[in-house]
Amino acid sequence: MVAKFSKLKAIVAATCLTALISLAPQVEAQVAKTETDLLAQLADADPKDAVAIDRALQAIWRKSGSPAMDFLLQRGLDALERGEARMAVEHLTALTDHAPDFAKGWYERARAYFSVGLFGPAVADLERALTLNPNDYNAIFALGTMFEQFNDPDRAYEAYQRAQAIHPHHEQITSALERLKDTVEGKEL
Fold first, then answer.
1. Model's pTM, two decimal places?
2. What is the C-alpha to C-alpha distance for residues 54 and 129, in angstroms, rounded to an integer?
C-alpha cells in the first residue's frame, strides 16, 4: 500500500509540474505591466481606465527598492498629511541623502518645501525629480504650479501642456490649462 501512495505522489507532482509549465506564459502575460507599457496606455486611455493606470504608475514610482527608504518616504508623506511640513522635509531629506536616484523622494520633498514656502529648493528638487523621471506628470504639474506662483503663466501653461501630453485625463492639469488659456492664448474676438 505504501508503494501505491509513493507512485500517487509522483503522479500528482508530475501533473502539477506539467500544469505549471503550461500556465507559465499566461502568468507572465498577467504580471504587472512595465512603466513604458502603462505610459503608452495612459496616453490613449479613456478617463475611467486612466484612473487605474495612474494608480499602477504611482505604485511603480513609489518603490525605491529598499524597505528602509520606503519607510522614510512613508514617514515624510504621513508628516505632510498631518500638516507637519517641516518634519516631512527632515524625513524626505534623509531619503534623498540615502537614495539620491529615487525620483519620488525628490518630488515629495519639493512638495514639502513648497508647503513651508521654500520655493527655490522646491524648484531644484522638482528639476532633480524630472531629471530622474521625465514622465512624472505630477512633478511636471507641480513645476507648472511653481511657475504660476512666480507669475509666469506662459511657462506654467507650457508645463501643464507637457504634463497633459503624458496624462490627458488628469483633472488638475485640465483645470489649470482651462484657467490659463485666455491669459496665455488670448481671448477670441
1. 0.79
2. 18
